[in-house]
Amino acid sequence: MDANRSKLTFSLILIVGVLTVCPVVMLVIGSFSEGLTAFGSFTLQKYVEAYTDPALAEIILNTVIFVLGSSTLATVLALFLSYLNNRTDIPCKFMFRIISIIPMMIPHILFSVSWALLLNPSNGLINLVLKQVFFLDHAPLNIYSLWGMILVEGLLDLPIAYLIIAPAMASFDVALEESSKVCGAGPLRTLFRVTLPVLRPAILAAFILGVVRSLASFAVPSVIGMPGRVYVLATHLYQMIATGFSVDYGKAAAIGMSVLAASVTLILVYRALTSESEKYVTISSRGYRPTVIPLKGARIPLFAVVALLSFVLIVLPVVVLFYTSLVPYSMVPSARAFSLMSWKHWIEVLRDPISLLSLKNSLMLGLGGATLGVILSVFVAYTIVKVRTRAAGILESLSFLSFSFPGIVIGMGFMWFFVRTPLYATIWALLIGYIATYLPYGIRPLASAFVQVHSHLEESSLVCGASRMTTMRRIIIPLLVPGMVSGWILMATMFVRELTLSVVLSRPGTEVLAVQILRFAEDGLWGRLSALGIMMIFISTILVILANLVGARFKPMEGGG
Amino acid sequence: MEIKIQGVSKHYFSEGKTIKALDDVTLTIPANQIFTLLGPSGCGKTTLLRCIVGLESPDSGEISIGDEVVWSKDKGIYVPTEERGLGMVFQTYAIWPHMNVFDNVAYPLQTRNVPRDVIRRKVEKTLHFVQLEGFEKRPATKLSGGQQQRVALARALVAEPKVILFDEPLSNLDAKLREETRKELRTFLTELSITAVYVTHDRIEALALSDSIAVMRAGRIIEIGSPQKIYFDADHRFVADFIGRANLIPAKVVKQTENATVVESPLGVITCQKRDLAEGATVTLCLRPEFIRVAPGSGKEGANVVRGKVETLVFIGEAFEMEIRAGGELLLAKVDADTRTQVGDVLHFTLDPAHCLLVAV
Q1: Which domain holds residue B172?
Q2: In DSSP terms, which residues pair with B273 in a beta bridge?
């Protein structure tokens, strides 16, 4: 049995190693090469060219402002929301759960597009309304700016920041605050001297994860930044490899190396912080409830703020997209607009062969990729949790590494690799890239499922006279199903909406939904874009519902004999 | 059913070192008794239990349950766990969280393909026995620690096994509940007249529950006996020390009389329980704190009377714990809660020869 286990561990290290290390190695070699076709002929030329580009300074400045701004916005909002939810008597607390989960269903590119539809300077809906109401000549608001990018990216990173800060806030031991009050400190002093410092690891972790995500973000910089000529590193890279006449993968790889290094460093810091935070925040005994602070007069206004946020995060994007998909061109909602509504854009999309192909490809990648990804995750999670040798530790670090990979950078690494194989420009290239980049999303829920399956649960079934097969069927699989379902949902929804890796790897014939939507955005075909986008949201939702139904079927009968 | 263990060894290899979890253990567990394996953590008691149930395989030796050999290195026999037909309560209870109470308890019967109505009847009966009637539909995760423990017991009992094994089943309960459950368990097991093998590191649990106790250390069985024998009459210093608090004083045998052994010690000449020891042998005198008694009145020097000064006095509720300096040794004694003794008093203490225990060094 031990021999089998170590064989399993090593083959997994090999698979995960190839998936995660290979693109990085290819990127490094690529950055020292002449070009995609002249792979391996060593040169420093690309680094010199890339880093002496006079435009780079401004791009880096933009990137820093964008990344820090949006992470700060997301963290502050998340802190505000989790405080309201856990520590105050704000009504309708179920809303907080919705805020933290539902926005993940809305693809980033569609969220960005909906804000562009609302606030773009030429025909943004809100701008049109403001111009009519106040008789203005110019649009008062312009989303195509650094501030617009920060706003949209901050809102996009809010749910993940909330998911990190809220549990820490919920397990916060109020006695720490109470003893500060006993010592004579007022509420403000207590907040800054006790509450925030104790929560610091969680807050920092949320902030750093926000930085990593916005550094890798491509949807917001491309949809909102590029029309306003505000470039950040992600769009700078995209320009070098996908637009213009002189496509230069070597130069892009040279820049990509810095982005990757920054991202990996930050993820290592994040990891150190989250393991630290377990020591920090004291989780009190069962049945413990923190004292609730009455908001009194502020209750309703604060509730209105939360309601507005959830409206902006969930309802607004979908409504704007649906509205735009029905009207012939951008117009303020009015009787005339409603009379002109038609399914014209929808029919055009359904007649467009490339849109249909992208629908088919994304659906296949979602279904097939998530299934393969979950199967691989089951084995990896099993090894990490149950085998626990030093080799299993290496496997864990390897599988965590891809968490830090910025899609567009790692996509270039894969490009250097695939161009040398028959996989180039096939759907398999996308499949492998997706699984490699999103493996942690499958492993995490499964690892916690395996942690739940204590070896005693298994052994006790054997003692009761059940065979290994019966034990597998009645004990282990049912306990793993919830983990498998959430891993599958996470991966499938990620794959259906995948953009950053796809913009690099997708080629004619392997178009996917998000890339097709980006093309529509670049061409200003907002109507078709919205129709396709609504279909995309619809597909994600159907997949989630299906996965839950399948998961429920596997649950053993409760009660009865 | 009787369990016979013969020459069983089990070694682990960890970081280049060999750990002898079981070192040539030979043991017979008598039928229909509560038999406890007691020892400090890492002594191999759980490993022995897991070898009996078949979750681990020894490196050598033979194990038989009743007339059936379930494991033998030489004969190449290995009966898998699921075919041994035993019951076991795990330290973590191992209640399956995705099933309700009924399914957890019914599981052993379901794997034996017992008809549904029989299952229903037997589960009902067993739940009644462990005082959990009406909990059938309750999800297993919605139970308290004590209730989970009883579900685990019901599951181990429902198929009426001839042998039931316990792996520190009370260690996850709080002190008060542990005491209650211990009493209940004793009642249940006596009522069933079943062979029970019980693993614990808690000496009070072992003394209160068992018919026989085997004390283990470093993979070996040091001593087997009834709780009284182990407590009052241990042969080994380790056992005497482990099973209860004891003052251990170096001594030397000076004389053997008809019904006593006399030793010389820093406390003076002490008459002890009769032991078969050569004159001049170096031994350890073992005195339990509760048998060091304050001599009434002013006391007088004589046989088994020790003069000592009270150094500390701690009130622990039902008694005082007193440290006495006598003959250069510091003795721990337990005296009645209503004593008028004070720190600094010089008193005489009597040592009953029946409770002066001599053990090998």
Answers
A1: 3-238
A2: B260
Minimal Cβ distance to A454: which of B55, B94, B99: B94
**Any A CB within 8 A of B100 CB:** yes
Q: Say if A210 falls within a structural domain.
A: yes
Beta-sheet pairing, B268-273 with B17-29 = unpaired
For residue A335, with 0-12 CB atoms within 10 Å meaning exposed, 13-18 middle and 19 or more buried, which class applies?
exposed
Give the start-end residues of each E strand in A302-427: none
Helices (H), B144-303: 145-157, 175-192, 203-209, 227-232, 237-243
Cα–Cα distance, A50 to A233 (Å, whole number): 12
Q: State the nearest Cα–Cα gap between A555 and chain B, in angstroms.
A: 8
d(Cα B87, Cα B84) in Å, to the nearest integer?
A: 9
Same domain assignment for residues A242 and A389: no
C-beta separation of A402 from A19 below 8 A: yes
Distance CA B105, CA B121 (A): 12
Contact A364, A511 (CB under 8 A): no
Residues B115, B54 share a domain: yes
Reported ipTM? 0.76
Q: Are A510 and A388 in contact (CB under 8 A)?
A: no
- State the smallest CA–CA distance between residue B86 and chain A in angstroms: 6
Give the domain CATH number at A189.
1.10.3720.10
CB contact set of B117 (below 8 Å; sequence gap of 6+): none
Averaged over B304-319, what is the pLDDT? 88
Q: Are B253 and B279 in contact (CB under 8 A)?
A: yes
Q: What does the block give as tokens for A229?
A: 């000529």
Q: Are residues B149 and B225 in the same domain?
A: yes
CB contact under 8 A, B107 and A461: yes
Is B96 at the interface with chain A, CB within 8 A? Answer: yes
Q: Which domain holds residue A9?
A: 1-23+342-555
Chain B contact for A478 (CB, 8 A cutoff): yes
A329 phi and psi angles, rounded to 5 deg: -150, 175
Token output for A500: 């950053």
**A37 inside domain:** no
Name the strand (E) or helix (H) holding A47.
helix A45-51
Residue A389 contacts B, CB cutoff 8 Å: no
Q: Alpha-carbon distance B239 to A269, whole Å?
A: 52
- Give me the torsion for CA of A113, A119, A123, A125, rounded to 10°: 90
pLDDT tens per residue across all 561 residues of chain A: 456 677 888 888 889 888 888 889 988 888 888 766 666 677 888 888 888 888 899 999 999 999 999 999 999 999 999 888 888 888 888 888 777 777 777 889 999 999 999 898 888 888 888 888 888 888 888 999 999 999 999 999 998 898 888 888 877 777 777 777 777 777 778 888 888 888 888 899 899 989 999 999 999 999 999 999 999 999 999 988 877 667 788 888 889 999 999 999 998 888 887 775 444 444 333 334 556 777 778 888 889 988 888 888 888 888 999 999 998 887 778 888 888 888 999 999 999 999 999 999 999 999 999 999 999 999 898 888 877 778 888 888 888 888 888 889 999 889 888 888 888 889 999 999 999 999 988 888 888 888 878 888 888 998 888 888 888 888 888 888 888 888 898 899 889 999 999 998 988 889 999 999 999 998 889 999 999 999 999 998 888 888 888 877 765 444 333
Q: Assess whether A253 and A367 both reside in one domain.
A: no
